[in-house]
């Protein structure tokens, strides 16, 4: 009898412990979900803040290079009757500056259309109980479609490829002229050579990072589409 009573007591205490633990977990579950949601929102905010900083720095660098190339190209452009460094290098800089300005205009048109879309159709909100992931994905797709047409996106990519190649050619030519000037008698006007080389390298680095980002986003979107359109597995017999 005593053994049976001891067994009953131990079973009751174990049941009580399990009950207390489950009740504590049920009470703390909303708090844990709230902490997780807060951490997710914080990481998203940090990510968006970092993206805004990168966008701001990129635009400042590119617009600064464009203004500098345009100023130096107009100031130091001279025609001596034949094709020499004093003519084609500043003219090349003016061409690169014009392409940079056109690229930035297309970019800001895309951003402006996105802001208009967000004003008309706000982003769906998600809470702890309702995530609305599908609605947010659809909203992002609609925003991408409304922000810029397919022709505008294609023209932007083609323009950046042309701009990259033109800037690469300018940098290589400036390096060649710089080497000749160092080994020769020097140059009467070294500003176009120096600015073309160093700031051309900076512009190439910025556009190379853009191409890397674009290719990564393109590959990830293709992978997501392939996963979503992949056929369902056959049921087990």
TrEMBL record:
The keyword Membrane applies. Residues 131-147 have a biased composition (Basic and acidic residues). The chain crosses the membrane at residues 49-74, 80-102, 157-181, 193-216. Keywords: Membrane, Transmembrane, Transmembrane helix. Residues 125-147 are annotated as: Disordered. This is Uncharacterized protein.
């Amino acid at each position: 009898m005593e053994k049976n009573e001891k067994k009953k007591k131990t079973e009751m205490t174990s049941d009580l412990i399990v009950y207390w633990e489950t009740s504590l977990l049920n009470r703390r579950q909303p708090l844990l979900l709230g902490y997780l949601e807060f951490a997710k929102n914080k990481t998203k905010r940090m990510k968006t803040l970092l993206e805004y900083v990168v966008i701001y720095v990129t635009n400042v660098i590119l617009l600064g290079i464009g203004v500098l190339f345009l100023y130096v190209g107009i100031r130091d452009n001279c025609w001596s009757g034949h094709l020499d460094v004093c003519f084609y290098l500043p003219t090349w800089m003016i061409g690169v500056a014009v392409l940079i300005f056109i690229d930035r205009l297309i970019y800001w048109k895309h951003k402006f259309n996105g802001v208009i879309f967000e004003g008309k159709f706000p982003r769906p909100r998600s809470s702890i109980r309702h995530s609305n992931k599908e609605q947010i994905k659809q909203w992002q797709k609609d925003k991408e479609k409304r922000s810029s047409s397919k022709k505008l996106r294609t023209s932007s990519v083609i323009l950046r490829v042309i701009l990259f190649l033109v800037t690469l050619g300018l940098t290589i030519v400036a390096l060649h002229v710089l080497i000749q000037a160092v080994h020769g008698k020097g140059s009467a006007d070294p500003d176009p050579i120096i600015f073309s080389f160093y700031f051309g390298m900076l512009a190439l680095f910025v556009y190379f990072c853009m191409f890397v980002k674009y290719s990564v986003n393109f590959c990830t979107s293709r992978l997501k589409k392939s996963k979503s359109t992949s056929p369902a597995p056959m049921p087990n017999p």
